[in-house]
Amino acid sequence: MPANQPSPSRAWRGLPAAAAAMLMLSAAPAQAAATTAAANEPPGLDTSAPLRALAQHDGLVTDEARTVPACAWSVLAHLANGSTMRSGPGRDAIKRQVLWLRTTQDELGRFAPNGAPCAVFDQTIAAWAMVSAWGLSNYKLLEANAARAVAAVEQAMLAPDGPPTGAELGAVLALLGEQYAFFGRTEPARRITALARQALAGQAFGKTRRGDAALHLAQMVLGETFLPELTVARTWPGDLTADPLQTLFAVQAV
């Protein structure tokens, strides 16, 4: 983090709106209630579960069994609760997950447990978690890991048969770009944002409710026009716990 960057606590409050809202989804109930009320969202909405649920869905984070997305979601959940690698009740958990992610990185920055690079979507989530842990914790030792993780995302998007596409991938890429730009890495953030637009190329509303929520969120982050009447009709889950990733996208999109 640059020397003039805000402290972790100030940086947290100063995050760009979309990224901050996504991370704050796992805040304590009182904090979440205040956040949602301020954003004119339904009062009393409990958004504390999605990130933790995603970590559990992608594999329980234990010393014996870890997956890249599970560790990444777990890191983001603890950061959202106000912990960093330096302080807070989730400090040790963040350190454990980040250390494991670092040990799986190859020389190209790919997260590759057992030598097998993870999928592009998982690489992007983990890069977002690594960038967030580095920036919010002001942890200089993670700077190179974060940079390599982001570079690996760029490389993964340069597939010989064309870049991967999808609303969900585009949304996470957009959030990664916004987050990296906030921490002063303007040029690579600009490239990641361009990749987000590529991932969204040809995507249209009406395929799945999760996809609609992701697409709408990505459009918001990228400053594009969107059809607001589709947000409530198409993106809000009937059950907030049935699909944590849809809930994560939909809360911010609505």
Q: Which whole number gives the mean pLDDT? A: 76
N-to-C SSE string, H for helix and E for strand: HHHHHHHHHHHHH
DSSP helical segment count:
13
Q: Report the β-strand fraction as a percent range.
A: under 5%
pLDDT < 50 runs, ≥5 residues: 1-48
| Total beta strand runs | 0
Structural class: mainly alpha
- Range of helix content: 55-70%
For the report, how would you describe the main beta sheet?
A: none
Distance between the termini: 32 Å
As a whole number of angstroms, the C-alpha radius of gyration is 17 Å
Entry keywords:
single chain; 254 residues; mainly alpha; 13 helices; 60% helix; 0% strand; globular; disordered N terminus
Written description of the protein model:
This protein is mainly alpha-helical and 254 residues long. 60% of the residues lie in helices and 0% in strands. The chain contains 13 helices and no strands. The chain has helices at residues 8-13, 17-23, 29-38, 50-57, 68-80, 91-104, 120-137, 143-156, 167-182, 186-200, 209-222, 229-235, 244-253. Helix 4 runs antiparallel to helix 13, helix 5 (68-80) packs antiparallel against helix 6 and helix 5 runs parallel beside helix 7. It starts with 7 loop residues before the first helix and ends with a helix.
